[in-house]
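User: tokens in, sequence out, please.
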């Protein structure tokens, strides 16, 4: 939004200056005819450089006109050759990856770990210590900032702020010092490879942990979140596990993790309501007593006590001793006291305790139970991997009542691409209609828009050569590139129409227009390309986010300028030569 507004405002300001200030300056300073001997002082070093440059440019211009004459002599062949080459170049489109946003370096990475279900907290802590040692071995000490680990989950309010769900889950966050040589993604790849080799019993999922990725993923931990939803949790989990096993075999997959478990060891308490009622206890009171004994810090009844001497209020609390429940026998002996009872009743007198396999967490999306399959690609390409996952889902026979959806940044990417495609189509149509109104012709605007296909080819080839992807930024660069190449094409067509209105023959008018307008076309394009080179080279902090935009514009201009100065004149002669009735010839 801000970038588009900046471009629009700058173009408006440039238009106002060009229509007001520039004519005044020309009237004030350009008093003589614009000839080289009037404006170039060959006695100075700069003047000699300008003289040599003009001499070189004139020679280049002569060679261009001779080549243009050959192409205009066979305009149909020239147009077919250039457009055919563009169509053939689009065969390289599958080599270009697709992503939502360019990958940035947040200077940190996060590892979600999951040990075998039911692993004790002490054993999980040993695993985390080994992972921390592995990180210190992979990341040089001069580039490693700090490591923060979080193990297990406490069943209280703090569980909201951690992705851990049980004693066998943990996460490790490592930060890098400013100025680190290798990127966070490179260190993530090294740590991932080491974890698979040295600790294959652990399930690990690595992510950048940056704010940009969190926003793009819509708050989800993965760019591709395969959500399997259904009412039967175990059937849903089995479907998710099957999908995860097949997704792991896909090329380009970095990590696959199912954060939920359904087989964690737990204890089920079956309350005998008849026995509990004999001692004055309800099911809720039994559960409240157990929760207080296991997880609560304090129990307040009454809420305060007033000191009769000072009149001060004091909170009156009763707290279970820490680590008071250390075995199953201690659990069975938890005292239960009814509201009006005088003697406590042990838990096993009214409850039957049995071991079960229980889910560690039950997630919901819009009231439906879901099991997530978090998928991270090795690189930036989300399009090819998400397409392969779509094919796996379509080829899977889902149980009744089970549904699979793809969420995360891939859903935002697809919505954005649809919007950009529609916007590009509408902008092209709008430009065509404006040109139709300006030129009072349906044919000449079509000739002008022929400069767009070579520009698209340039964008495609440049992004592939730079190892970038088609993302939101490169699409914005593509739209800006279309505006520039169309303006270059307008210079040729408009000046040709002016010469034709003065009675100049078709071929001569086209050749003269191309010769005169080549200099402003090159100046505009080279100024844009040179100005965007630092951005395309990712120079500066955060420049990797805008590099695809610059690369798209540079690639589109490089190819389009070379093709436009031959394609547009040839197309103009081809479509207007019936007006002349004579073969097109351009005198040297």
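Assistant: Sequence out:
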């Amino acid at each position: 939004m801000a970038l588009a507004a900046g471009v629009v405002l700058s173009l408006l300001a440039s238009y106002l200056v060009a229509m007001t200030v520039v004519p005044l300056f020309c009237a004030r300073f350009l008093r003589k005819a614009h000839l080289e001997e009037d404006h170039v002082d060959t006695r100075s070093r700069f003047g000699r450089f300008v003289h040599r440059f003009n001499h070189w440019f004139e020679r280049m211009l002569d060679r261009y006109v001779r080549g243009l004459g050959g192409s205009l002599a066979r305009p149909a062949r020239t147009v077919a050759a250039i457009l055919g080459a563009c169509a053939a170049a689009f065969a390289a489109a599958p080599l270009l990856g697709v992503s939502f946003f360019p990958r940035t370096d947040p200077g940190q990475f996060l590892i979600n770990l999951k040990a075998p279900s039911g692993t004790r907290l002490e054993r999980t802590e040993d695993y985390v210590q080994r992972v921390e040692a592995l990180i210190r071995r992979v990341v040089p000490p001069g580039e490693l900032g700090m490591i923060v680990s979080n193990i297990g989950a406490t069943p209280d309010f703090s569980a909201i702020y951690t992705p851990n769900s049980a004693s066998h889950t943990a996460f490790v966050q490592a930060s890098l010092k400013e100025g680190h040589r290798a990127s966070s993604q490179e260190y993530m790849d090294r740590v991932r490879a080491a974890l698979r080799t040295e600790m294959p019993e652990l399930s690990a999922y690595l992510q950048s942990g940056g704010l940009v990725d969190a926003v793009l993923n819509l708050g989800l931990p993965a760019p591709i979140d395969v959500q399997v939803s259904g009412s039967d949790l175990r059937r849903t989990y089995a479907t998710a596990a099957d999908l995860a096993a097949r997704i792991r075999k896909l090329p380009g997959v970095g990590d696959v993790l199912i954060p939920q478990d359904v087989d964690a060891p737990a204890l089920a308490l079956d309350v005998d309501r008849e026995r509990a009622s004999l001692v004055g206890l309800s099911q809720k009171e039994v559960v409240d007593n157990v929760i207080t004994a296991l997880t609560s810090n304090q129990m307040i009844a009454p809420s305060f006590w007033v000191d009769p001497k000072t009149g001060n209020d004091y909170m009156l609390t009763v707290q279970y001793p820490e680590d008071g429940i250390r075995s199953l026998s201690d659990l069975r002996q938890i005292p239960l006291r009814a509201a009006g009872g005088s003697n406590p009743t042990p838990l096993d007198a009214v409850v039957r305790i049995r071991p079960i396999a229980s889910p560690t967490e039950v997630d919901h999306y819009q009231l439906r139970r879901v099991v997530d399959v978090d998928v991270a690609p090795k690189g930036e390409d989300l399009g090819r991997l998400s397409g392969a996952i779509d094919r796996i889902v379509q080829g899977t026979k889902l149980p009744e009542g089970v549904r699979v959806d793809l969420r995360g940044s891939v859903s935002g990417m697809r919505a954005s691409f649809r919007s950009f495609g529609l916007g590009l189509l509408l902008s092209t149509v709008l430009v065509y209609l404006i040109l139709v109104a300006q030129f009072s012709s349906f044919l000449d605007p079509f000739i002008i828009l022929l400069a767009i296909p070579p520009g698209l080819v340039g964008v495609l080839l440049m992004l592939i050569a730079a190892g970038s992807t088609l993302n939101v930024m490169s699409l914005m660069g593509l739209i800006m590139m279309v505006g520039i190449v169309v303006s270059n094409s307008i210079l040729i067509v408009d000046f040709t129409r002016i010469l034709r209105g003065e009675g100049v023959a078709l071929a001569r008018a086209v050749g003269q227009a191309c010769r005169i307008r080549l200099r402003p076309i090159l100046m505009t394009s080279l100024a844009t390309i040179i100005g965007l080179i630092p951005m395309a080279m990712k120079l500066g902090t955060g420049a990797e986010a805008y590099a695809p935009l610059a690369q798209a514009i540079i690639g589109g201009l490089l190819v389009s300028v070379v093709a436009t100065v031959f394609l547009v004149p040839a197309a103009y002669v081809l479509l207007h030569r019936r007006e002349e009735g004579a073969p097109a010839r351009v005198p040297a």
